[in-house]
Amino acid sequence: MSLDEPPRAPPIPGFWLLLIANVAIYVALVLSNGDLDIAPRTIAIWGGLVPQPFMSEEPWRYLTAGFLHFSLVHIVTNMICLLAWGVPLERGLGTVRFMILFLASIAGGSFLSVAMHEGPFIGAGASGGVSGLLGALMGLWFLRFVGLPASFFVINIGLNIAVALFAPNVDWQAHLGGFITGLVLAMLLVPRRGWHSRA
Question: Which residues are tagged catalytic?
Fold first, then answer.
């Protein structure tokens, strides 16, 4: 690279790994289910969230549920959020911290979802993970590591609340749990040196 060329952005292998994993699993679900809309029973069999008594016997569901999606719209929406929020975070935090943040946010969202559902339910989706990315951006904004305008958070959090209120079958508990997990964890994981050179 010559001195006149701008520095290249660091690679984002974590983002691609998560994107490929989510898409591949959704394709496998479609082939297994025979339809783009995945039956709740199929989601449950593949590792979705279920009521607490069953979760205690199969705790791995707290993570696997974050890689299962009910429909094409469901996965496309989450992958767009993963792209919009995940890429800048991975470049700023580094791949290891980014992956820890995403997986912990999935678990945090799953735990709150299961804890707040009293009756029978089946939950799934990367919403807890991507909500954690939004929460992480807000935490880093509080610490002044990112220069996003306040309107970014007003709009994106507002849209999340609107979807939770008006869209049917949205697991807002997973969104909230993931957001809180990402908000707190990002402030613990942020590399105090080198963020600006990586972003």
Answer: 127, 175
Joined together, the tokens standing for residue 68 give 């299962």
Domains of the chain: 13-198 (1.20.1540.10)
- Bridge partners of 79, per DSSP, are none
Nearest to 136 by CA among 188, 66, 196: 188
Look at residue 118 and give its three-state secondary structure: coil
Specify burial of residue 10 (Cβ count, 10 A radius: 0-12, 13-18, 19+).
middle
Which tokens sit at 183?
A: 């908000």
Q: In a structure prediction context, what are the per-residue pLDDT tens digits for the chain, which is 199 residues long?
A: 333 444 556 778 999 999 999 999 999 999 999 999 999 999 999 999 999 989 989 999 999 999 999 999 999 999 999 999 999 999 989 999 999 999 999 999 999 999 999 889 999 999 999 999 999 999 999 988 888 899 999 999 998 888 877 777 889 999 999 999 999 999 888 766 555 444 3
Please, what sign has the CA dihedral across residues 144, 145, 148, 152? negative
d(CA 50, CA 44) in angstroms, rounded, equals: 7
Task: Give the amino acid at 10.
Answer: P
Angle between the N-to-C axes of helices 150-166 and 127-142, in degrees from 0 to 180, rounded to the nearest 10: 150
Percentage helix, strand, coil, to 5, in the chain? 70, 0, 30
Whether the model pTM is above 0.85:
yes
